[in-house]
Amino acid sequence: MTYYPRDLVGYGAHPPHPRWPGDARIAINFVMNYEEGSEPSLPDGDGRSEAGLTETPASPVPVGQRDLAAEGMFEYGARVGFWRVMRLFAERGMPMTIFACALALERHPPAAQAIREAGHDICCHGWRWVEHYKLSKEEEREHISRAVESLQRTTGQRPAGWYCRYGPSIHTRALLLEHGGFRYDSDAYNDELPYWVTQDGKPHLVVPYSLVTNDAKFGRGQFSTADDYFSFLRDQFDMLYAEGETQPRMMSCGLHLRLIGHPARAAGLARFLDYVRGHDRVWVARRVEIAEHWHRTFPYEPGMEQIALEAP
């Protein structure tokens, strides 16, 4: 059969029982995407302003001019939204994973300190919030190296995982293994359980992410109200929780500070957090905890791997 660099089968009809801690019926991971201050901007020499996932994603400002409105919407996420989201989780004693753009945290030392003190884990979201598939291989290698060094310095911990903006390049995973030290990456949207791949002959764990239960839909007009957000996440949770009686899976909830950090949206997040807390046999986990659980429970053995971006 001709080599085809995709796996459309995965675990199939009989995925492994993940044996989550506490006999949990669902593992749920909340992800704060910390991007504000690392997005493309004229002050950083990018030649354009970024308006992605803001109130006006189709910026009317001509390319080459600073979009001060969009910059302000990003700034809201760091100045206000961050602290609101941190408070909601702290009040409930619930953990998060921080998908951290390194430059953004360099520019907000109080946020880096608050993350350290709260004990949230770090997954590297790049040196900056840029599309890695637009970088050359050499540029991408440099971005990975700078990001890891920076996050170690600002947060006091080496990032255990990696996640690109939107999607990786064809080189990303190989460069992660070349750099070393990553326990997983989340550059995949194709499953509800972690799985092994091989890259350049080495085993590597993938912990899939999701754009489905993600507040980015506010920025795209698919969610309008806190009720929209809460109802959608509740329905996802309810079906996974019911299925989890015999086949537990995981749920990823992505949060963006310039979106969910606004009061009218944060109300839906608070409602969902309380809904989750009202159920037993739920493992609210850091992403690194999910990865380490998989490493321990399903250590790699030849034949476990699914297809990676490499020819045999």
From TrEMBL:
Residues annotated as transmembrane: none
Region (Disordered) location: 37-62
InterPro entries: Glyco_hydro/deAcase_b/a-brl, NODB_dom, PuuE
Domain NodB homology span(s) in chain numbering: 68-285
One Pfam family of this chain: Polysacc_deac_1
Family named by the database record: Belongs to the polysaccharide deacetylase family.
Function: Is involved in generating a small heat-stable compound (Nod), an acylated oligomer of N-acetylglucosamine, that stimulates mitosis in various plant protoplasts.
Protein name: Chitooligosaccharide deacetylase
